[in-house]
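Q: Can someone sanity-check these two? First one:
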Amino acid sequence: MKLMKFAILSFIFILVSCTDKEIELKYIAQEEQIENYITSKFDTLTPITRNNGSNRITIAQSKEVLDTVTGVIPTVNVLERGDSIKFSYAGYIFNGGPQTLFYTNNPEISKLYGDTIPKSLHYGFDDLIIGLEYGLEGIKDGEEAIIVFSGKYGYQNEPMYSVPAASPLLFHIWVRDIKKNK
C-alpha cells in the first residue's frame, strides 16, 4: 500500500513538474517573441525601459516646456511607489504585436468598442497586474508608451476576461496626470 501511494505521488509530482516546465518554456518563448517585436519595430534611439520582465517603449516623451515668465522648465512628475496616476490604456493580447483588444479606458478607442471612463489608480497597491506595475515604474507625466510582458507577469496561468491563460500582454498607455503622494 505504501509503495502504491509513493508511486501515485511520484507520478503526480512528475506530471506537475512537466506542466510547470512547459509553462516556463512557454514564457521563455513569449519573452523571445517580445524581444523580436521590440528590436524589429523600434530603432535604437527609441527609449526602452526594462524592469523585472516588463518592457516599456516610450512613444512620446513628456513635454517639458520652458515657462516664459520665470525662464524655468517645470519639473515633470515621475511615478514612484505610493503615487497616484491617471492614465488611459488599451490592453491587447500580444502575439508578435498587439492583437486582440481585451479592454480599454481610452475614450477614443472605446468609441469603437464601448464606453468606459478613465480612472485614477493608486500605483503599487495590488490594483495593477505585476507586469503593468513594473512597466509604469518611472514613467513621466504626459508620456505615451507601450508596455509589453509575458504571461508570467500578466494573469499567469489563469484565464481572465477574454484573455486566455498564460497570454502575453501589451498595453498602450497615455499618462494624463501623476500626483505625488509623499
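And here is the second, same format, sequence then C-alpha cells:
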Amino acid sequence: MLLLGANYMVDASVAIAKRANISNFIIGLTIVGIGTSAPELFVGIKSALAGDGDIAMGNVVGSNIANVLLILGITAAITPFAIERETQRLDIPVGIAASILMVLLASDSLIPGIAENTLSRIDGIFLVVVFLAYMAYTIVLKARNPKEAIEDADEQTASSLEGFHPAILWLITGVSLAALIFGGNLFLDNAKLLAASWGMSEAVISITIVAVGTSLPELVTAVIAACKGNPQLALGNVLGSNVFNCLFIIGVSATANPLTITGISWRDYGVMIAAAVMTFVVVFTFGKHKFDRIEGFIFLAVYIAYIVTLLMQL
C-alpha cells in the first residue's frame, strides 16, 4: 500500500498539475521529490504522533545508510558511472552537512546536565527552514542553466495518467493518499509487533526492516536506471532523498510532535555519516571522478557487515 500509494499519488498529482499548467520544473521539485519519499514521510509523522521517536529517527538513519551503501552499491556493481562536477561540489557536501546537522540537533546529551536526546519543535522547524533554503538555492542554480533544467524536468514529470479525466485523477489521488495513511499505520504497528516477538529493539527494527521497506522506491528506481544504462538518475535520486530525509522528514516529524530518541546509538549515526563521506571519497579513488564497480562491492560489503553487527547484538 505504501509503495503503490506513493507511485499512483505522484502520477495522478503530476497529471493534475500539468492540466493546471504548472511548470514541469516546479512539479519535479515538489510533487515528484516529495512523492518518492512519501513512505518515509508517512512513517515518520505517524511514529512522531505515536510517540515512537526511535522508529521515526531509525527509519531516516537506516534509509540513508541503505540508500548509499545498498542502493548505490548495487548500482555501481551493475554499471560503473562518472560523478558529475556539480554533484561533487554541491550535492554530496550538502548530503554530508545535512546528516551532521540532524545528528547534532538530536544529541542533546552532549550538553552537560541534559540526559535525554530530544528533537524539539524548534529543532524541527529549523530543519524545515534549512531544507526550504536549500530548495530555493537549487531553483536559482537551475535557473542559470534553463535548457538543462527543462530537459531534466521533462524526464522527471512523465505521467502514465495524463489522458485520464480530472475526476478520475482526483479519485486516484484520494485513494492513494488513503493507502499511504493506512499502509503507514499497518507498517508501524507490525514493525513494533515484530520487534516485540523477535526480541529486537524498535531502533533495530526501524534501521533494518522499516528502512529498507520505505527505501524500496529508490531501490527499484536505481536498479532499473542502472540496467537501462542511466545510473546518474540513481545517484541523484539517492542524494536528494537523503537530504530530504534528514531535513524535511525529521523536521516535519519533530514539528508534529517532539521526538525522544533512546535506542539510536552513536554507531548508527556514525555509519550514516561515514556512508555520506564515502560518496565523496569515491570521487578520488580507483577510477577518479567515477563510481567504480570495486567501490560498489565495497559499499555492499560494508552494509552487510553493519546489518550483521546489529543482528549479532540481539
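A (reply): Looked at the second one. The first strand starts at residue 81 and ends at 82. The mean pLDDT is 83.
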